[in-house]
Write a structure and sequence with these properties.
single chain; mainly beta; 7-stranded mixed β-sheet; 4-stranded antiparallel β-sheet; 47% strand; globular
């Protein structure tokens, strides 16, 4: 069982920044990990993935504003969020895949965190 604990959410004004963290109870080396978000009344959205080789991928909605990174020494996944807008308001979740390969699919990941709320005011 892999435990994932997100932190770093909060309330910020439009144009501001936040850094989310996801601490994993297992080694994150060469693991596919991702950030998802779910806004009220909207479908869950995969926004950033880092694959087994450490290469990041982003959804168009956050490309150029968000940066995903993984610190294997700390077993922690990060999401640096800049130029936030009210449309970024959502619950943010991290996800962890035990095996090889990588995907944008929520159901494909083996473990998911409880989420951290991000609220952006205009």
């Amino acid at each position: 069982q892999v435990q994932l604990q997100e932190s770093g959410g909060g309330s910020v004004q439009a144009g501001g920044s936040l850094r989310l963290s996801c601490a994993a109870s297992e080694n994150t080396y060469r693991k596919c990990m991702a950030w998802f978000r779910r806004a009220p009344g909207k479908e869950r959205e995969g926004i950033a993935v880092v694959n087994n080789d450490g290469k990041p991928y982003y959804a168009d909605s956050v490309k150029g504003r968000f940066t995903i990174s993984r610190d294997n020494a700390k077993n922690t996944l990060y999401l640096e969020m800049n130029s936030l807008t009210p449309e970024d308001t959502a619950m943010y979740y991290c996800a962890f895949r035990v095996g090889n390969g990588c995907s944008w699919s929520w159901s494909w990941f083996d473990y998911r965190g409880q989420g951290t709320q991000v609220t952006v005011s205009s």
